[in-house]
Amino acid sequence: MLTLAVLISGTGSNLRALLEAASHPDFPARVIAVGADRDAEGLAHAEEFGIPTFTVPYTAYASREEWGRELAAQLDAWQPDLIVLSGLMRLLPPAVVERYAPNIINTHPAYLPEFPGAHGVRDALAAGVAETGASIIVIDDGIDSGPILAQERVPVLPGDTEATLHDRIKPVERRLLIDAVQRIATGDLTLSR
């Protein structure tokens, strides 16, 4: 059984979908801890499912590296097989990436390598493209530059706003994430850097 630690910053909609999938007896992975870099709304999903949570507030540390050391200490306490970044709006320090790579994956609301970074949906709209997408990647030291595990196109519709487009991307992201975790757990998908 693949064990997962999930890291979030916000409402945790992808986390909830993963928790629901993992609650089925035949799903080959279990979420064992959920962490956040702030007092995130999404921690309530973990509590509802009886999953332990931890918070490592980014603003409580003098540097990203200090924050990363405490985050790694929290993760080490759980010894997850896989770390899932699901809406974590922080770049992991290189030492954290090195410590756990390649067993860190991330969801991203764009068809990478198009529109990396924190504003993938906004950037797609600003570029006037006809389609964008969702991607699941292995984390590396870059910004959304790691190996792509899964991705799917999502059309940009006339009149789309950042909110409406993101609302159409999220279900695709959730489906891709659940499928990728399942395939990693069964050995059908191998992680590499």
UniProtKB/TrEMBL annotation:
Catalytic residues, chain numbering: 108 (proton donor)
GO molecular function: phosphoribosylglycinamide formyltransferase activity
Associated pathway: Purine metabolism; IMP biosynthesis via de novo pathway; N(2)-formyl-N(1)-(5-phospho-D-ribosyl)glycinamide from N(1)-(5-phospho-D-ribosyl)glycinamide (10-formyl THF route): step 1/1
Top-level enzyme category: transferase
EC number: 2.1.2.2
InterPro entries for this protein: Formyl_transf_N, Formyl_transf_N_sf, GART
Catalytic activity: N(1)-(5-phospho-beta-D-ribosyl)glycinamide + (6R)-10-formyltetrahydrofolate = N(2)-formyl-N(1)-(5-phospho-beta-D-ribosyl)glycinamide + (6S)-5,6,7,8-tetrahydrofolate + H(+)
Residues reported to bind N(1)-(5-phospho-beta-D-ribosyl)glycinamide: 12-14
Domain (Formyl transferase N-terminal) ranges: 4-181
Pfam families from the UniProt entry: Formyl_trans_N
Keyword line: Purine biosynthesis, Transferase
Marked site positions, Raises pKa of active site His: 144
Function (record text): Catalyzes the transfer of a formyl group from 10-formyltetrahydrofolate to 5-phospho-ribosyl-glycinamide (GAR), producing 5-phospho-ribosyl-N-formylglycinamide (FGAR) and tetrahydrofolate.
PANTHER family: PHOSPHORIBOSYLGLYCINAMIDE FORMYLTRANSFERASE
Family designation: Belongs to the GART family.
Name the UniProt record assigns to this protein: Phosphoribosylglycinamide formyltransferase
Organism: Microbacterium commune
